């Protein structure tokens, strides 16, 4: 009996000891959990906060090292999302938390809203690292040879968007049903393609109905004029935009006009429709119709008011336009991987400042004889921009020499022109360069840096 009692006491003490150890262990683990020391909503341009997983870290309901954090998407799932070929699996970062251990976590949401949570983002606030990296959801695409198009299958599919679906968070349909615009002439002003899917989208404007605009899938439009888009001489008036010298720079149609006498839709050729024509042909209407031409229409011009006021259905009238002034477009220069994307994720190249220590990202922008000049609001192609850069001697840019720690060699970085994008004169455009580090004396050593005037062709400061 004494032996039995002794054994019981022994087992009891052992259990108590194990409980004490467990308690100490639990307390230690709780004490080791990280605490949040700062939280902030990200307020930078939302389009610059598009990210994609690297597959190195999981997604949690709270920062992963904070007590109570639960797994939303495992590391394995994040790896699959990282290699996804679907734009829906990109993410938008919108909140940032930092722990007392110096770790930064970002709250992110997938473009389709399926996943939302915190992911480890490295040790530097404001920089996407660790479990995420910046994403370029679109790339530049070739403009179509014919920029006049129509909706291929008017209806609720193939509509226009604020951005191609899932390339921006909460991209929305600009026009939900194109049935009423089946016969409208659309003008393509820009082209991009989804980075992952490779599908091309066009940005279109509508001179007849300026509210109809946005990004549309390239295969949802056609260059074939719809049968119903033929000119109706009982309701329509043809318009030629003409210079004072008699040159026609663009044409359009004022459609479905109301009769002056009845205020109802005209039903016969030769009906006076001047009141409705004048009300329709506003400055904004003219701007949409003249997109990319470099000419401006003014509704208040006396000759235009007379032509519109006297309009009759079936007529062809001429409205006077004036060529815009010559202007210069500046470039923003970017370092990229060479894929030619529109790249909010590309890194801006910085201009070297005399007297400051050079680095791999501080380029000497040389003086040039003339800027990239053209008629204000006239379009230029990516090829036009590239030709200018090459002619101006800007196809290669170099940094001054710089040193590396514990190294006596002279280094410099050479930037080679990779791609450009189309645009309109007067607006800033982009040029993308690929970088390679070299040793020896930098070609930029004796260059004169750009300062003001025609030489101030870049925005990088």
Specify the structural class: alpha+beta
Distance between the termini: 91 Å
Helix content percent band: 10-25%
Ranges where pLDDT stays below 50 over 5 or more residues in a row are 1-31
Q: Mind describing the biggest β-sheet?
A: 8 strands, antiparallel
* Beta fraction: 25-35%
Instruction: Give Rg in angstroms.
Output: 31 Å
Q: What number is the mean pLDDT? A: 88
Number of helices: 6
Principal-axis shape equals: flat
Number of strands: 31
Could you give the topology of this structure?
Elements (H helix, E strand, L loop, with lengths): L1 H31 L3 E6 L8 E4 L5 E2 L10 E3 L1 H8 L8 E9 L4 E7 L5 E5 L11 E3 L3 E3 L7 E4 L8 E2 L11 E3 L10 E9 L5 E7 L7 E4 L3 E2 L14 E6 L5 E7 L19 H7 L2 H7 L5 E3 L4 H8 L6 E8 L2 E4 L1 E5 L11 E2 L1 E2 L10 E2 L8 E4 L3 E2 L1 H10 L4 E3 L12 E10 L2 E2 L4 E11 L22
Parallel strand pairs: 17-20, 22-31, 24-25
Antiparallel strand pairs: 1-5, 2-5, 2-8, 3-4, 3-7, 5-6, 6-7, 9-13, 10-13, 10-16, 11-12, 13-14, 14-15, 17-18, 19-20, 21-26, 22-23, 27-30, 28-29, 29-31
Please summarize what this structure is.
The chain has 461 residues and is α+β, with helices and mostly antiparallel strands. The chain is built from six helices and 31 strands.
Question: What would you say this structure looks like, in words?
Answer:
This protein is an alpha+beta fold and 461 residues long. Helix content is 15%, strand content 31%. It has six helices and 31 strands. It has helices at 2-32, 75-82, 274-280, 283-289, 302-309, 382-391, and strands at 36-41, 50-53, 59-60, 71-73, 91-99, 104-110, 116-120, 132-134, 138-140, 148-151, 160-161, 173-175, 186-194, 200-206, 214-217, 221-222, 237-242, 248-254, 295-297, 316-323, 326-329, 331-335, 347-348, 350-351, 362-363, 372-375, 379-380, 396-398, 411-420, 423-424, 429-439. Strands 1, 2, 3, 4, 5, 6, 7 and 8 form an eight-stranded antiparallel sheet that branches. Strands 9, 10, 13, 14, 15 and 16 form a six-stranded antiparallel sheet that branches. A five-stranded mixed sheet has the order 23-22-31-29-28. A hairpin with a 5-residue loop joins strand 17 (237-242) and strand 18 (248-254). Helix 3 (274-280) packs across helix 5 (302-309). The longest helix is centred in the first third of the chain and has 31 residues, at 2-32.
